[in-house]
């Protein structure tokens, strides 16, 4: 019987798979798309997305982008909804550990490449880092115009009235712009772009971010990018300006204000708490001695830690 | 009125011809359309009137011929030499197109208010309150109650949808509106209301209109001038009441005599 | 007084293509003129072509031969050869037509129907409506009807609304197509006075009037149309 664990640990060192799974020609093709994306900020570049050994919706676009830019000296962090230890993050981290053998981390500051699903780390990123987004639907206009031929023309001609129709509908039906995630932005005063389903809380972080942002949509076969320090404006109306979500309490565990919080249900009797969605950020603060109002709660002991209770 | 004193035509059409393979859609059509003038193109199904309308409105490139339009700056431009961006801007600002089937001209899954406001947003309006009040004003002008502003057109009757489509087209104060059987498929009483509304809006706004219809009563009520088409050719043209009261061509006489008298 | 209208060698026939191309001659070599302030009445039996002549002057019927010259300011326009938009301008400012039949416009109140031609000539809306009401009153249209659309009025009421609409604006040339047919004596008298007022303003009028009394009162001259009839029609 073969020792499967041993083979998987060293799979990248054998000839079975190339470094980081994709072959070098494919990586070059993806890099060309990335370079084009960087040259035209916010423009969706078509690319020949490959079948990946995971289902669509699991981040096949982000994985291909990461595989194409990953070097042997990189340190990789994987986030799923802010967390390093959910299924998607653990699986994809394991995928690259096995196919590339690169160093991985949970610490934002230590990573050189961060692949994320639905969040941007709370800690500001630097020019030495690259943020890779997993994108399900890259086309922000699709909500109102299903024809791809037409939306491409609309992008080409900067014909973006339709985008505001969606926001108008939000206000008309809800009294305010009710879009809370995948909130459309205009990049570099030119292309309207879907920032992937990150909460709009993170939109200000996209604006003039020091790190390079790469967006990969595997099923839709599109790559787009925002170069470092690029102006990114969230769409809005003069009388209904863009606003981010506000939380009236700090994080229950670490006491942080002005961060994006997740609701955690504690029991069947309505017990709940709000904690940082960015688990690494929360842990780091707690390690530094910050304590939130519910940190002493025995129920809290079961969450937010990497070791199973 | 004082609509007929303009020195220059708004639209100049010269020898417009459209073939579908070796079949003729429309052949060698020429005319001028003047500011404030309503031109009806009449004829039976298959006479080429819709082909011609589509050629005029840049929805279908003619096989031969030239169509020139006087832009807001006064310059005559060949429509088929405009860039795609210029053409689109023209279509969503200076022009309107009213489809026979309102669903073709409306966004059925967004509210009435957004349907009217879309053109404003497309040309840069970014104040929700202003957009909404403009939409509300236009719904009033086409006799749709204010409290329907947030409803989808799916919940509207055929006549209301058609009026909404008209409001959506007129909100940017276009100078030229194309209409393809705007009253087709509506009940007679609904038709009468729509025609009256169109007649007043066209006169109040001084619109130029090219309207395709097979209904001579619609042509008589709305148009100043009429063009009769048959088998792709314009066979008779002139003042509307002159063509209808004193038709000259055999086919026109047949058309006029085919009207049911009530 | 200057000549306002001159018909020169006007001829007209109908070709009925649905009846094997039968040609029905209407009039031939029509020639007469009308001066400012003059009312010319066309005489002759039914079918002589009186109505067709009026319709040709108005541009409603095409003119096959000859010229129909109308003085507009310093210009002389030939209606027979004018392009459609020119004819529409003439109808707005120069040539009025009073017929006995009202082509009703749905949903427009009677007073607005009457005021419309005056507003089109540039009179303010309020003033035009005041004049419309005055005229409706003179023609004995009951006040309760003024704000209603005329579609449901009786034939006589509709006719008087139409007369008011025809007389309200200032047209240098006015065509009268049986304006008094089926009116009662009182209203006939009103129409006669309206015509007298127009004459005093220098309006040139051409009329068809079967009513002997009215014709005698307003006609300055009678032109017998039968003499223009084509031989074939005789």
3D architecture notes:
The complex is a heterotrimer of chains A (309), B (262) and C (234). Chain A has 309 residues and is of the alpha/beta class. In chain A, 26% of the residues lie in helices and 16% in strands. Residues 1-7 of chain A have low confidence and may be disordered. By secondary structure, chain B is α/β, with parallel strands linked by helices. Chain B is 38% helix and 24% strand. Chain B is built from 10 helices and 10 strands. The radius of gyration of chain B is 18 Å and the shape is globular. The two termini of chain B are 31 Å apart. Chain C has helices spanning 50-58, 84-93, 110-120, 125-138, 155-168, 185-200, 212-218, and strands at 3-16, 22-35, 39-43, 65-72, 75-78, 95-98, 173-177, 204-208, 221-224. In chain C, the strands form 2 sheets. Chain C has a 5-stranded parallel beta sheet, sandwiched between helices. Classes of the chains: A alpha/beta (309), B alpha/beta (262), C alpha/beta (234). Chains in contact: A-B, B-C. Chain A binds chain B through residues 144, 153, 156-157, 159-162, 164-165, 168-169, 171-173, 236-240, and chain B through 84-85, 88, 92, 107, 109-111, 113-114, 117-123, 126-129, 131-132, 149-150.
Shape of chain C: globular
How much helix is in the residues of chain C?
A: 25-40%
**Rounded mean pLDDT score of chain B:** 92
Strand content of chain C: 25-35%
Helical/strand content category of chain B: alpha/beta
Quaternary state of this entry equals heterotrimer
Most extensive contact: B-C, 25 and 23 residues
Main sheet of chain C: which strands, in order across?
Answer: 6-7-8-3-9
The total count of helices of chain C amounts to 7
Structure classification of chain C: alpha/beta
- Low-confidence sequence ranges of chain B: none
**Beta-strand residue fraction of chain B:** 15-25%
């Amino acid at each position: 019987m073969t020792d499967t664990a041993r083979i998987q640990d060293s799979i990248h060192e054998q000839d079975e798979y190339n470094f980081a799974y994709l072959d070098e020609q494919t990586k070059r093709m993806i890099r060309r798309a990335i370079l084009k994306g960087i040259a035209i900020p916010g423009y969706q570049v078509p690319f020949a997305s490959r079948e990946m050994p995971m289902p669509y919706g699991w981040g096949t676009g982000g994985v291909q982008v990461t595989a194409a830019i990953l070097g042997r000296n990189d340190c990789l962090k994987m986030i799923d909804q802010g967390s390093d230890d959910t299924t998607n993050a653990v699986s994809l981290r394991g995928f690259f550990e096995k196919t590339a053998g690169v160093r991985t981390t949970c610490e934002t500051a230590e990573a050189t490449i961060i692949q994320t699903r639905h969040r941007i780390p709370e800690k500001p990123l630097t020019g030495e880092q690259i943020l890779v987004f997993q994108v399900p639907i890259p086309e922000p206009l699709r909500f109102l115009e299903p024809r791809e031929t037409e939306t491409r023309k609309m992008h080409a001609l900067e014909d973006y009235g339709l985008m505001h129709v969606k926001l108008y509908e939000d206000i008309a039906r809800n009294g305010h712009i009710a879009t809370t995630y995948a909130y459309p932005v205009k990049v570099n005063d030119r292309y309207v772009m879907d920032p992937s389903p990150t909460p709009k809380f993170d939109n200000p972080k996209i604006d003039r971010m020091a790190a390079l942002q790469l967006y990969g949509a595997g099923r839709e076969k599109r790559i787009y990018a925002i170069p470092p320090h690029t102006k990114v404006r969230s769409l809005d109306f003069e009388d209904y300006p863009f606003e981010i979500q506000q939380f009236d309490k700090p994080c229950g565990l670490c006491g942080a204000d002005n961060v994006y919080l997740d609701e955690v249900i504690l029991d069947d009797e309505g017990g709940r708490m709000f904690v940082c969605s960015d688990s690494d950020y929360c842990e780091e603060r707690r390690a530094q001695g910050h304590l939130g109002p519910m940190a002493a709660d025995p129920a809290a002991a079961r969450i937010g830690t990497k070791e199973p209770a | 009125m004082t609509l007929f004193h303009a020195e220059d035509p708004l639209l100049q059409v010269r020898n417009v011809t459209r073939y579908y393979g070796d079949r003729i859609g429309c052949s060698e059509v020429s005319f001028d359309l003047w500011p404030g003038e309503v031109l009806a193109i009449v004829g039976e199904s298959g006479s080429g009137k819709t082909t011609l309308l589509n050629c005029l409105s840049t929805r279908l490139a003619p096989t031969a011929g030239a169509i020139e339009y006087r832009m807001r700056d006064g310059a005559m431009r060949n429509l088929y030499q405009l860039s795609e961006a210029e053409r689109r801007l023209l279509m969503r600002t200076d022009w309107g197109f009213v489809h026979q089937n309102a669903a073709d001209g409306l966004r059925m899954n967004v509210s009435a208010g957004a349907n009217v406001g879309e053109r404003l947003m497309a040309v840069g309006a970014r104040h929700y309150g202003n957009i909404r009040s403009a939409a509300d004003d236009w719904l009033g002008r086409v006799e749709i109650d204010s409290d329907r502003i947030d409803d989808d057109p799916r919940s509207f009757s055929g006549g209301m949808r058609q009026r909404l489509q008209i409001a959506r087209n007129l909100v940017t104060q276009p100078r030229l509106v194309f209409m393809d059987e705007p009253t087709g498929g509506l009940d007679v009483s609904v038709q009468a209301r729509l025609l009256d509304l169109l007649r007043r809006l066209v006169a109040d706004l001084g619109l130029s209109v090219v309207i395709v219809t097979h209904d001579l009563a619609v042509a008589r009520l709305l148009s100043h001038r009429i063009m009769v088409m048959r088998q792709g050719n314009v066979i008779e043209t002139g003042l509307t009441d002159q063509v209808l009261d004193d038709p000259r061509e055999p086919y026109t006489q047949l058309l006029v005599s085919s009207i049911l008298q009530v | 007084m200057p000549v306002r209208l001159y018909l020169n060698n006007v001829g007209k026939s109908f070709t009925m293509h649905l009846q094997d191309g039968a040609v029905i001659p209407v009039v031939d070599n029509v020639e007469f003129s009308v001066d400012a302030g003059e009312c010319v009445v066309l005489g002759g039996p039914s079918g002589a072509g009186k109505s067709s002549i009026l319709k040709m002057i108005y541009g409603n019927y095409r003119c096959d031969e000859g010229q129909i010259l109308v003085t507009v300011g310093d210009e002389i326009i030939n209606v027979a050869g004018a392009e459609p938009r020119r004819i529409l301008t003439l109808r707005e400012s120069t040539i009025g037509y009073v017929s006995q039949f009202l082509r009703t416009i749905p949903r427009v109140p009677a007073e607005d129907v009457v005021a419309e031609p005056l507003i089109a000539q540039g009179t303010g809306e309020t003033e035009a409506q005041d004049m419309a009401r005055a005229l409706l009153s003179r023609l004995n249209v009951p006040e309760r009807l003024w704000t209603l659309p005329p579609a449901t009025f009786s034939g006589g009421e509709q006719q008087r609304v139409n007369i008011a609409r025809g007389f309200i604006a200032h047209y240098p040339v006015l065509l009268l197509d049986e304006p008094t047919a089926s009116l009662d004596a009182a209203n006939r008298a009103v129409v006669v006075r309206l015509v007298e007022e127009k004459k005093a303003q220098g309006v040139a009028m051409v009329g068809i009037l079967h009513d002997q009394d009215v014709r005698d009162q307003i006609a300055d001259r009678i032109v017998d149309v039968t003499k223009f009839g084509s031989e074939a029609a005789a």
